[in-house]
Automatic annotation (TrEMBL):
Organism: Jhaorihella thermophila
The protein's name in its UniProt record: Translocation and assembly module TamB
Annotated GO biological process: protein secretion
Domain of life: Bacteria
Cell compartment(s), UniProt: Membrane
Broad class of where this protein is predominantly found: membrane
Span of domain Translocation and assembly module TamB C-terminal: 796-1140
Amino acid sequence: MRVLGYAVLLVLAIAGMARAEDDKTLLESFLEDTLSGDNRTITVRGLSGALSARATIEELTISDDAGVWLTMRGAVLDWNRLALLRGRFSVNTLGAKEIIIARPPGKTTQPTELPTPEAQPFRLPELPVSIELGEISVDHLVLAEPVLGVAADLNVGGALRLEAGVLDATLAMTRLDRAGDGARLVAQFSNETRIINLDLAVREDAGGLISAALRMPDRPSLSLTAKGQGPIEDFTADIALASAGVDRVTGRVRLRGIAPTEGGGAAGRGIGFDARLEGDVTPFLQADYRPFFGDDARFVLSGWQAGDGRLEISALSVDSDALRLDGALAMAAGGRLERADLRGRIVPPGGEAVVLPMPGPRTELRRATVELRFDRAAGADWMATAEALGLARPGVRIDRAVLAAYGPIDADPGEVLRGKLRGALEGIALDDPALAGAVGDGLRLTGGFALKDAQGLRFERLELTGVDYRATVDGAVQGLETGFAVEGTAAVAAADLSRFSALAGRDLGGAMEARLTGRGAPLSGRFDLVLEGAAQDLRAGVDRLNPLTAGATTLRLDAKRDETGLTIRDFRINGTQISASGQGRLRSGDSALRLEARLADLALLDPRLEGPLTLQGDLARGTRGWTGQVSLRGPHGSRADLDLDAQDESRAELRFDAELRRLERLVPELTGALTASGRAQRGAKGLWTIVGQAQGPSGIAARVSGTWSEPTGEADLTINGKLRLDIANLFIAPNFVKGDATFDLTLKGAPALDNVTGTIATSGTTLAIPAAAQTVRHIDARIAVARSQAELALSGDLGAGGSFRVSGPVALTPPFDSRIAVDLLALGLTDNLSVTTSATGQVVYAGPLGGDGSLSGRIDFGDTDINLNAIGGSVGAAPIPPIVHVGEPAAVRATRARAGLIETEKAGKGPVIALDVTLAALNRVYVHGFGLQAEMGGLIRVTGSTKKVEPVGQIELIRGTLSLLSRRMRLTKGVISLQGGLNPYVEFASSTSTDEGTATIEISGPMNAPEVKVFAEPERPAEEALAMLLFGNRFSQMSPLVIAQMAASLARLGSGDAATQGVKKATGVDTISVGEDETGAPSVTVGGYLSENIYTDVTVNTQGETELNLNLDLNENLRARGTVDNAGDTALGLFFQRDY
């Protein structure tokens, strides 16, 4: 019926238009503008006879942001226009051939328009005193499946008469696409005959509209009847609701006349009433709701109403398995409450909690009680209480919720009811940590209220209190006839705003309080208010702005809006660093505004800028249009001026002129001033001509010119010029860029990226990246923009050698889809500590720039050098350890920040990118350090995603040795692999087999912290394993003390010759070396001085051979040497030597 009502409104909206009937386009546009609202856009086509007795519309559509959701075709309104003058709406026929509802209505975005300064008076609509609809008909009412869950085609017909104490309504609805489903209603009553005739019948088979709309389990067949006929003093109606052919709920409603002595007294006869409904409603409910009702629910109501208006409900009872509610009520003539008694409780029939039958998420309750007591005759105070325990919904749990109200029964003159309120929420637990931190674990409510005859409802210091915040209301709310006028005071205060940080998504802090005093009417927009606020050390989550609100800050706004317009009597902000003031008026034909603001020192925002910043603005509107000036003044004579001159609708001009002096304060490479100026002129038909230019040091220049059409919103603009990229250093520190960029862009059409074309280019640019210890030189880049897409072409050289190219398209609209290829050409890579290599290959990123794309390709590495000594902690090569700065000056910290030396917390969650990158280093990977000399090669394929990296493959040993205590051993194992976080992991080992078993020395662990281990099979102490490794089968001939000292020396691997020094100290010899003889057998040599010029040494190998050497220094240049071994062989020699 609401849809058909639009046809009625169409005619009512134009009934007073003095226009020719044949001006259809104008009428249709008028109706569309008049009937469209915040949640609908109406389109009318084929309107005819709008000012005649029979109006028709070919088609009417209602749409939202998603499109048309309702279509009405063939609408007819045959009506009596003159009857409206007598307050009677009389229609012969109201109908439509077809109404199609495709889906429920959604959101409609209306054009953003500023409201008028003047408030609009609120008035209640005036309705006709009587309505007569002779025929209501809709041939086809089509409901698409999204509306109720089942598609349907209905025929609707009926009539309605409501006038002079007569109600006569008939309605019939038949489903055309399924036989047997339908509804019929007859409702009749006349004050003259006092006879009621009610006949309601609804029937549908299984899977019908009603069961689908109410989401009944199994979608059963339904039948609902309510039928009765008779005089109002003796009327009975029987009600029955059935499903699947079984009566579920039955009952009866009775009306009866009562004698004057029973309740009417001298006022005449009254009407008694009673109703009783009972049955099993569980077949209609979801399984979770059934325990609340059980299989036998009851509703009982009985009472009477006297002829003078007195009302008494002697019994009210609602009973189910979980709910019990009993009550009674008595009201005097005129509606004054005399007595009320209500008691109820909710108790789970089984278990600890019961699910409440309410829409939305599942809601559970352990127990609840409600009680109301009011008896004017008894003269005691009235009271009402409600308590709920164990209330739980998804994400919310409340241990106890309680609300109590009480007060005197005999209120003050003019008051209907007065009382006090006390309430609390205790044990609040919220799953959302941000919301939990803001709310806390409890809330309390206190205050009073008074319900007044003429002044509506008044709240007396109604206060809601949290952990360290509160909100207070003290005022009155009047009724609808005043537009819900309000008057009073509202206040909020928070001692610690940081508790709201997570909820706001930013770092808040400080304390604040605010108070709003005055009056207003929301429906008309009228108000007369004063807002006062104060804050201490306010933080808004922007580190740069926090110094501006340090200390005490106050706010005051005194404003009024009525039918004459908006007046700002006073506006002030005062703080330790910022201040602002303003006043003015806004009226449709006469406006004037003035604003002044001042920042004490710009250095609070940037240490490179010192001095005050002031703003002053004036804006005025007269009968011919707007004029205004805004000026900004900064340190060292920097300025900006904006002038507006819009004297009439056909002409307007906007001019700006700005100068930023001493640009070197921000960009040291640019000395001088940056200036900009321009104008925008409005000509005939709303066409704006725009010209602007900017100049700066080192050839900085830019120019914009073209037009913009106000009626169409389309532009024809070009912007071109040259910029110094050094300006970007303000935002990319500690990185540093140097070079020029040129741009030449065009906008043709509506301001949108689709209509922007042009190029941005740079050449010979240099970029320094301290974090990567790299400098990128000779950067040449070209970005071509067209159709919301940028085509990249970029190349450059790396300071460590080699070059790279970047190319591919990037969409300029979310989600910024791209396909970017990066080519590496012998690109030198180093961490300036332990790893040096070169890379050649290509990787391609495809997908949104924000993540959820893929990275694939292959990179081949050239000669690679890995120095484990530098990684493992060599004093000369290791990085500087972390330094804690105590009492650090601000300037020093700023310098470290620009250098990237201050670590900040990384975000816990980043984009997920699929990986398929092959890292190939087939040979020439050289590893040294810890005595290692190894060449390696292999291939690693990085798969998975950035969330879970899955490396496949490894770099393996080709050849290599391990030198230990002057002995060189062949490596038996060498592997470099990548673990989950792409962390390199190394494993090197060398083993020796003897009669006693196998000994192994192993260097393994993360590349940045490898460990050295020595072990044997079968298991032996580490010192014995070391001796086996060095001496083979002869290790058993060494004393335990020597072996222990060798183990201690092993622990000092990587510290020069400390290992051999430990062994020499343990044995008392002057020299010791471990190696191999000419046959390759392991050997050890120890030696010492017998006197100042006699030196001897002994060599023993693992084959049991022994050799003794004796050296005699005859003088500085002549030496005699003799040798004897265990086989009896001897040798004697004389040697001459001289040092040069």
